[in-house]
Structures are given as C-alpha cells and as structure tokens.
Amino acid sequence: MPRAVRTDIVQPDGxxxxxxxxxxxxxxxxxxxxxxxxxxxxxxxxxxREWVLVAASRQARTFLPDRADCPLCPSxxxxxxxxxxxxxxxxxxxxxxxxxxxARPAGGTCEVVVYTxxxxxxxxxxxxxxxxxxxxxxxxxxxxxxxxxxxxxxFIFENRGEQVGVTLHHPHGQIYAYPFVPPVAALExxxxxxxxxxCRLIADELKGxxxxxxxxxxxxxxxxxxxxxxxxxxxxTRTHRPALPALTPGSRRSFLxxxxxxxxxxxxxxxxxxxxxxxxxxxxxxxxxxxxxxxVEFYPVLRDRGRLKYLxxxxxxxxxxxxxxxxxxxxxxxxxxxxxxxxxxxxRATVR
Length: 352
Prior knowledge:
Distance between the termini: 26 Å
Number of helices: 6
Structural class: alpha+beta
C-alpha cells in the first residue's frame, strides 16, 4: 500500500497528534487535555553505566478508567479525549504523561500509538486492513523520529495486560525516541562478530528446525534456545534488513502478520488473553551498524494459567534469568496451537 495519509494536529499545549487514514472531525465542544507540570530529568548511574529517567508527573497518569472515560477512544459530545476526532482509523499522539520530554535535560519523545478507534480488541484481533495500516504507521514514525536532531534510538513496543502494568485497555502501543542508545540495544549492536550475529542465529534455528514456528514470506518466528521468558518468541526477517523502512510494503505486512499469528497463539495457549511485552529492535539513528537486524521479541509473562513469571532476586538483582520451561517444549506447544489456528482458518475459508 502507498504511504498512509497523515493529518497533523497541534494541541494548545504544543503536543502533536497524527491521524492516519480517514477520520471525522471532533465534536464542536472538543477541549484538548493538557500535559501536567512535572520534573523530567536524565540521571546517570555510574555503577551500572546507564541512564535513569525521572518523570515525576507520571504518578498522576490515568489508571484503568471506566470504558466511558477511556482517553484513547474517539471524542464525543461532552467527552473530549486525547484524539481530536469523532472517528479515526489509527492515531499517534505525544504522551500526556511521558517518560521524557524534548526539552533538556530529558531530551526525548514519547508517543502513544492507538491501533484502532474500537475500544474492545487487541493487536491479535486487528483486521487485515488495520494491521496493514499499523505497519505503515510504525514505519512513518520510525522515519520521522530517527531524522530528528538529538535522537539516537527509536524503540517501538507494546505492553499488554494489567500484569505488566498496563493502565489503559484500549488497543495501543508506544514509541520512545531516546537521546541515547538504551542498554539492551547497545549490547546487541556493539558485538564485534564477523557479519551479522542475528543472521547466524536465524540460520542455526532454520537448520535445527525444532524451535522454528513460522518460516513464510521471508519472515521467521522461533523460540530461541536461550529464551529467558516462558514461551518467549522472536520474529525476524530472514534476510538482513536493519529497520522497517528497508522492507517493501508487502514484507512489512508479512512481518506484522507473523507477529499477529504469535499474539493469537498466545491467547489460545492457555485459553486466556496472554499478558506480554513486545519489543521491536531496529537500527539506531545515524550511520549504519552491521549488527542492526530488524526483529521483535515477545515476552509473555505467564508460565502457566494463573502463574506469573516474576523478576525476582536473580533476575532483578543479579541480571541472571531463570526460565521455568524448556525452549524446545515451549516451541512444540506453540507450534501445535499455530497449526490448529491454520486448520481452523482453512476450514472457515472452505465454508465460505
């Protein structure tokens, strides 16, 4: 698909809203919410050699509102939300309770990506046209944010479920544009191995096959042998591509379709909506980095029905994860769910 039509709006407090695709104007009484006053700083931890963000106003952010008060739904008469539209396809806005602001000393940007104007649902339930639009939204935001002066790394992610701290149930994700390369990405990108390490890992998984879940359309998904989380899955391009803009629109669509298949498998695995964290790893801003290979990592936080994987002493205090499951067995279970999904979809197609 061609680049999605984008409408740019600046709210009275200076925050930007980007509406993608078709939309309808807000009601006549629309009143934009404003960012609260707060302290935003970057503080250096010399022991761990990493930045800590201070965002003192986030304590007051919206917490699990009633559906009628959802700030991500379309605005209606008598109820103004973050979205200055009474109908929209997808929207992005600068967070009213950000972890960073563009002004120094924080020096970054935090955006909320609203997948749909429908309150009920999830990334796993987006219809094909909205999934395709989301691929272009993510790509557009990556392009724009990496081009901004002072931005070193653009991180697209999604937290799903109250168990991982989600405070709004409307389907959405986030984008952090950091003024530095965050520790996890920095560790991956500075490895001094010949060629791309991610390419080698994918080749090894394809050769072994036991942990491979998807290998279609130039996209692979697998449970890594070194998984830290129960049922952790990585989705990546088979050939070396540093970021979303390096893919054709068709390949971006295939990439998100594979991601969605994994998200749907999670929900069927335990027959409950799976809480997870999704982290997209891409190239940093600026010069090319040999180790930058586009991939997504899914961290589902349930190890069984009603049993959370806690980041306790070893994980949080020592940085050593303990996985309660065997990667190969997790792959077997997820593969069975994926095959069942495919059989069900084929059956529905036959009936139609």
